[in-house]
Amino acid sequence: MASNCIFCKIINEKEALKIYEDEKTVCLLDINPISRGHCLIIPKKHFKNIFDISEEYLREVISTSKKVSKLIKQKLNATGVNILHASGKSAQQSVFHFHLHLVPRYKNDGLDTWPKSDYKEKSLKEVYQKIKK
Length: 133
Ligand SMILES: [Zn+2]
What we know:
It is built from 3 helices and 5 strands, in the order H-E-E-E-H-E-E-H. It is α+β, with helices and mostly antiparallel strands. The chain has one domain (6-132): HIT family, subunit A (2-Layer Sandwich), CATH 3.30.428. The longest helix has 22 residues, at 55-76. The structure holds zinc ion (ZN).
């Protein structure tokens, strides 16, 4: 537990709106939802982001995201989900305790969760070679 981490604190509060919990993960409703049932999947152990989370906890978080997706499909009649994540300030991570946003989607909900970009890659081959070497 990180002493000044809001998620380490929230996951232990009785008032938290936990819709799912197991030994290593917890799922809370987001307090500022962007769709009905928008929730956060959080490892109970403190990890900053994708770069430092253990394989074990990452597996558990992904497994929980499937369970919660099924739960939301069944209980709220969602017809799809987006699973969103930010690691690092440049990715707009705002709480530095690893978490996934699970955003239920509904037919004609008007949400657009894919970032808009004017970026044009000059050379995919160069990118490929840099990563593969
Ligand atoms: Zn934390």
